């Protein structure tokens, strides 16, 4: 039987093309491994830092019911961060290393969390818009080529579905409430709309990694495709709420069967990415502080585990 | 399941005996809420992700328990007030939580000691309440005691780890014990109201409870290689509305929305 | 500050009585007791389980993917191990 000699790399690509998942011990190109570690850890860091803007409102939630929901949601984000760190760890990095990269500023996280949460309606917008955008990004990742990442995303997506709904419910309650509540909702939408559109990343023309990531099926849609999908999904929902999307160019395009919309302010986008968002410094500092102030706790637990293991060994030897 | 809350069914009628329980039920509600609030302040700032999740779980349990008590209290009161009215619209001096639970988080050692002292009391109290004469309260206790059994395990194990861990963890846990032990006594010192209810057999006897707590504390402290503090002056007053200064700030945050936007739905 | 990381543990959950424990992911814990508690907090927030196993990740030994052909493909042509290999007359029931 005549078989073509394929290089390792070609065999790898052939498996990807056949939609066969790659598992931790399988051979993979070094660049694939690096790209995945970067993307998964960035995603994990986003969950971790993402706890802060909402965590901010747990102590001020306006009712006991809302307080429970918000706390459960932020807790879920900790869980999601953990699932993702675990997935990245199967690629041969450690959580400590990933956190060190976050704390040193080397690793990035989603810029959306560098915007402040100023009113209760922001909890609505974060759930409805930010989580809505995140879900669009994440659902295709449930079929991403790397097995542990795909499995982590299945778990994340399953749990995320309540996040967006609770956000929408907050917005709906505000919009059906007193005039100052409705105004609170509109004001929050005005602030969150554009930063949410930026969550999908730079325009395709300025996104050099997209092509390779699509080829490896780490990514399954381009940034602009997802952004368009998001606008098409959200404009009718805003209309339902009686809110106005802060973009005069938003208009239904019959020919394209999609909404036209204005240009994202890319200068602002790159500014926040570079660290000049209002909250970049304090978000990162909060994480560094938590980590450093927790060092003695982590050490003590290890020291105690070692002592206990030693004692048990001595007991069984006696 | 923590994010799906089922309210307890409404009472058909409130008996005279049950109505007497109102201040005690409110005291339980305030206590669970304030401690949940303090624990929730850790969310996003814990020493490791896994413990962030653990503390949020405990906070959610306590919050759920607080809601059950507030809803019951609202029915006992029969004035048309809701759980949120009771939680968000009473001033600090009307809050009935013991001083311990309003103490600030400070470091993880303080949080553990506060939790350990409260869990030892809470778990043993719930064991009694679930067999008590007030069926509604007994039902809440029956559900909550399963959660409290986990809490006491968690805080006891951490107390042991920190006591018998490193020099630093020992120094910190000893400091936290010095700072917080004085607030432990109030938990089992009955107020005049509690005494009346105890005399009527509605609230468990705290002397017996104290013995169970002491036994648990002794066991855990021995494993933690820590001496149990003796002859510590017990601060009290929280259960009668005389609080430390910390509660005012806590309530300012907790009640901010309801105070700023009165009478709205959220 | 140099510090040793808490060990990694693999978590297996039995979702209900009668089913196998299934691998769900991993987490960090200082010891086995903590690993089980962390697993409860991390992986069973929505009633996902009735029983938890944890195994320190360093204790898991895995087969090598390079051996996949030698390990699994020989089973390919042993179709006589599967019941569908055999033809049973239609009139025969309960087989």
From TrEMBL, chain A:
GO molecular-function term, one example from the UniProt record: phenylacetyl-CoA 1,2-epoxidase activity
Organism superkingdom: Bacteria
Gene3D superfamilies named among the record's database cross-references: 1.20.1260.10
Ranges in a coiled coil: none
GO biological process: phenylacetate catabolic process
Gene Ontology cellular component annotations, sorted alphabetically: cytosol
Stated name of the protein: 1,2-phenylacetyl-CoA epoxidase subunit A
From TrEMBL, chain B:
Pfam families named among the record's database cross-references: PaaA_PaaC
Gene Ontology annotations of biological process type: phenylacetate catabolic process
CC terms in the record's Gene Ontology section: cytosol
SUPFAM superfamilies: Ferritin-like
Domain of life: Bacteria
NCBIfam families linked to this entry: PA_CoA_Oxy3
Protein name from the UniProt record: Phenylacetate-CoA oxygenase subunit PaaI
From TrEMBL, chain C:
Highest taxon in the source lineage: Bacteria
Pfam family, one: PaaB
InterPro entries named among the record's database cross-references: PaaB, PaaB_sf
Protein name as annotated: 1,2-phenylacetyl-CoA epoxidase subunit B
Organism for this UniProt entry: Hymenobacter perfusus
């Amino acid at each position: 039987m005549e078989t073509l000699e394929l290089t390792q790399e070609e065999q790898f690509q052939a498996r990807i093309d056949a939609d066969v998942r790659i598992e931790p011990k399988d051979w993979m190109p070094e660049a694939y491994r690096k790209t995945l570690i970067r993307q998964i850890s960035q995603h994990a860091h986003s969950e971790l830092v993402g706890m802060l803007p909402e965590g901010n409102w747990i102590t001020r939630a306006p009712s006991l019911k809302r307080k429970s929901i918000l706390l459960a949601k932020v807790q879920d984000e900790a869980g999601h961060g953990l699932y993702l760190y675990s997935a990245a760890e199967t690629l041969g990095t450690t959580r400590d290393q990933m956190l060190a990269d976050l704390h040193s500023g080397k690793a990035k996280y989603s810029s959306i969390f560098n915007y402040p949460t100023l009113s209760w309606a922001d909890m609505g917008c974060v759930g409805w818009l930010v989580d809505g955008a995140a879900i669009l990004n994440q659902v295709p990742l449930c079929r991403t080529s790397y097995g542990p990442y795909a499995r982590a995303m299945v778990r994340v997506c399953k749990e995320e579905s309540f996040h967006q709904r609770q956000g929408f419910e907050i917005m709906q309650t505000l919009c059906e409430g007193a005039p100052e509540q409705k105004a609170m909702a509109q004001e929050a939408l005005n602030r969150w709309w554009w930063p949410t559109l930026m969550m999908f990343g730079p325009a395709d023309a300025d996104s050099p990694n997209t092509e390779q990531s699509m080829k490896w099926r780490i990514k399954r849609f381009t940034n602009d495709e997802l952004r368009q999908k998001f606008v098409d999904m959200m404009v009718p929902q805003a209309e339902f709420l009686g809110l106005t999307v802060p973009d005069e160019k938003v208009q239904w395009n019959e020919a394209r069967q999609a909404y036209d919309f204005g240009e994202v302010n890319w200068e602002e986008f790159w500014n926040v990415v570079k660290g000049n968002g209002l909250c970049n410094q304090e978000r990162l500092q909060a994480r560094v502080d938590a980590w450093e102030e927790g060092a003695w706790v982590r050490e003590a637990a290890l020291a105690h585990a070692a002592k206990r293991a030693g004692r048990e060994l001595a007991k069984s030897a006696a | 399941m923590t994010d799906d809350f089922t309210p307890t069914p409404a009472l058909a009628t409130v008996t005279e005996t049950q109505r007497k329980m109102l201040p005690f039920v409110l005291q339980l509600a305030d206590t669970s809420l304030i401690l949940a609030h303090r624990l929730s302040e850790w969310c996003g700032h814990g020493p490791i992700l896994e413990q962030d999740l653990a503390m949020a779980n405990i906070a959610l349990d306590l919050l759920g328990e607080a809601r059950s008590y507030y809803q019951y209290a609202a029915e006992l009161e029969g004035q048309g007030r809701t759980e949120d009215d009771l939680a968000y619209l009473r001033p600090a001096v009307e809050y009935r939580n013991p001083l311990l639970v309003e103490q600030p988080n400070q470091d993880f050692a303080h949080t553990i000691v506060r939790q350990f002292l409260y869990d030892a009391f809470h778990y043993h109290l719930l064991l009694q309440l679930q067999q008590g004469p007030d069926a509604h309260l007994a039902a809440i206790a029956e559900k909550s005691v399963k959660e409290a059994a986990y809490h006491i395990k968690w805080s006891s194990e951490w107390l042991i780890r920190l006591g018998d861990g490193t020099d630093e963890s020992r120094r910190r846990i000893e400091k936290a014990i010095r700072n917080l032990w004085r607030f432990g006594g109030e938990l089992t010192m009955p107020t005049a109201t509690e005494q009346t209810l105890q005399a009527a057999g509605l609230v468990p006897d705290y002397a017996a409870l104290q013995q169970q707590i002491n036994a648990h504390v002794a066991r855990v402290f021995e494993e933690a290689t820590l001496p149990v503090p003796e002859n510590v002056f017990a601060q009290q007053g929280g259960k009668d509305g005389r609080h430390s200064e910390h509660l005012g700030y806590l309530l300012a945050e907790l009640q901010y929305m309801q105070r700023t936007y009165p009478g709205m739905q959220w | 500050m140099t510090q040793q990381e808490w060990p990694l543990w693999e978590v297996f959950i039995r979702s209900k009585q009668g089913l196998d424990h299934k691998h769900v992911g991993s987490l960090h814990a200082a010891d086995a007791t903590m690993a089980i508690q962390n697993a409860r907090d991390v992986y069973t927030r929505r009633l996902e389980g009735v029983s938890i196993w944890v195994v320190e990740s360093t204790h898991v030994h895995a087969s090598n993917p390079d051996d996949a052909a030698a390990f699994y493909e020989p089973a390919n042509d042993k179709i006589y191990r599967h019941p569908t290999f055999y033809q049973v007359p239609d009139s025969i029931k309960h087989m």
